[in-house]
Amino acid sequence: MSDPRAHDFIWISDRSALESDNVLPDWVNSSWRTALPLVVRRDQRADGAIPVGIRGLTRIQRAAAWVKPAAVVRVVTPESLVSDVNALLQSPFVSQQPVQALITLSSLQLPFPWGVTGSCAFALASDIPVMHADSDLDLLVRCDFPATPAQFLDFYDQLQRLPCRADVQINTPQGGFALSEWLRGGDVMLKTATGPFRVRDPWQSLTG
């Protein structure tokens, strides 16, 4: 099993594996169960624990925690959630606009590996109906090597034709940044495991 990355979903063997820097909210103890996925977030701890976010059934139910790698029993990536268009067509959420948008994108030849995150991804991974009529579509694009804005212009143009608003985060080995901000030019806000940084080149090492 490969090491989970930010935005991956993981499942753990036992809820006792959840560790938190603060007391977890009551809703976690009353309604969260190990059949539900945790989402990997950006953070780091010296002992190598995986930073995760716990999601409830409402928008305000969010909590941060940590799990040891040994407790992970399953990993689902954003890319795998869009790899099978037949699975999307058979999803109980197929009538939702974000899923319709994913089906459209699956038929296109995109230049980089991509996947879905956010509420749409959680719904597809858990079968829990957390999407709403006004839900945006959150996408992730893996881009491990330096690219130019010109390489994304056609993709960005295709996003404007989708039936719902789409937000795209480009993930580099250093962190993630918003595609729309990068295409405007200038510095971008790069989200990393040690916090956000304003950078000109999101592929340049921050430790060099």
Automatic annotation (TrEMBL):
Swiss-Prot/TrEMBL keywords: Nucleotidyltransferase, Transferase
Entry-linked Pfam families: MdcG (PF10620), MdcG_N (PF20866)
InterPro entries cross-referenced by the UniProt entry: Holo-ACP_synthase, MdcG_C, MdcG_N
Domain Phosphoribosyl-dephospho-CoA transferase MdcG N-terminal: 5-78
Residue ranges of every copy of the Phosphoribosyl-dephospho-CoA transferase MdcG C-terminal domain listed in the record: 96-202
Xref: NCBIfam families: malonate_mdcG, PRK01293.1
Protein name in the entry: Malonate decarboxylase holo-ACP synthase
